[in-house]
Amino acid sequence: MIMxxxxxxxxxxxxxxxxxxxxCDFHSSAMTRLPEGQYLAAVQRELSLRRRQWADxxxxxxxxxxGGGTPSxxxxxxxxGLLEAxxxxxxxxxxxxxxxxxxxxxxxxxxxxxxxxxxxxxxxLGVQAFDAARLHFLERPHTxxxxxxxxxxxxxxxxxxxxxxxxxxxPGQTPEGWAGELTEAMTWHPHHLSCYPLAIEPGTPFFGRHxxxxxxxxxxxxxxVLFQQTRAQLxxxxxVAYETSNFAQPGFACRHNVNxxxxxxxxxxxxxxxxxxxxxxxxxxxxxxxxxxxxxxxLLAREATDGEPHPLLHHQPVSSTExxxxxxxxxxxxxxxxxxxxxxxxxxxxxxxxxxxxxxHWQEAGWVQVERDRLxxxxxxxxxxxxxxxxxx
Length: 393
Ligand code: SF4
Known about the structure:
By secondary structure, this protein is an alpha/beta fold. It folds into two domains: about 10-260, Aldolase class I (TIM Barrel), CATH 3.20.20; about 320-390, Orthogonal Bundle (Arc Repressor Mutant, subunit A), CATH 1.10.10. The chain is built from 15 helices and 17 strands. The strands form four sheets. A nine-stranded mixed β-sheet has the order 9-10-8-7-6-5-4-1-11, sandwiched between helices. It has a three-stranded antiparallel β-sheet with strand order 12-13-14, with no helix packed on it. The two termini are about 25 Å apart. The structure holds iron/sulfur cluster (SF4).
């Protein structure tokens, strides 16, 4: 049986930053002069190639997410050009949700006004900490005063929703200090909060410094305390933990991210972006763009050889094993959990039957629930997400 096609959203990656933060392993390059014109031209070309590739797809976009990198570094004219190019080629639903990621030091009041006028309704601000010493440790290019001013401007401009990104579990952080930071975050009344623990990723400067013993990570126990504290404190203010690190006032979950975590389809546009696409027969495909700015722009400058599709359009089938894995990995992060019928459709397997003994134990322990065709983690189970996934994958 072929299921109806999932919703379709679009992610556009802006791979530029002023400088690299020492913990960051995202695809972005530190640049002082941005090749805005060339990047815009490359993205425009990619959009028209992909439109031809997906010509038969009738789905309108339900959300557009412009992330990075630091999208707020772009001039307003470039940003408008990018949005126009998307909207000229893709139909969108009437209330299409358009989100932009911005960093406080490059989000001026004038730019915010321009973004709002272009139709960007959601702003996600990379504040990261409400503590000067922690901002300094993270080597963010903004100060606490700049962060507060940017939030003030976002409120003044009146985005339909704004999000604050915060990082916790930095060395030496205490529950008391974190409580104070969360209190400040809540007093700004953001519609959405993303709170991620600091991850020490291989290949980053932080990884090297940590290996050398320059500082000690907070450790699993403290991180677990801060995790629970975040959930409890934000729940007290009405922010619902709809995903393990994401909290929203009712009705303000991020549509693109929910689609991604729910194994929906998304166009991945721009350098290093990847996409997922279900064709009319139900087969699932993955697209993956070149990872560096130079290689992405060079590929887009190439013409297709006679009779061959453009090399950017190369796509790979997603096996049922990979699809099931991804559906679980993403789905269990959400409070609503994984849709069991979808898992069965992707893999041909009954998840609950396959892990009946384990799931039975977890149910008894109060860590998981199976209800309304979903397997979900409870509040007690959410801190065990990684070990539960390990057992199910
Ligand atoms: S601003 Fe964001 S994307 Fe850029 S280096 Fe820092 S963490 Fe990475």
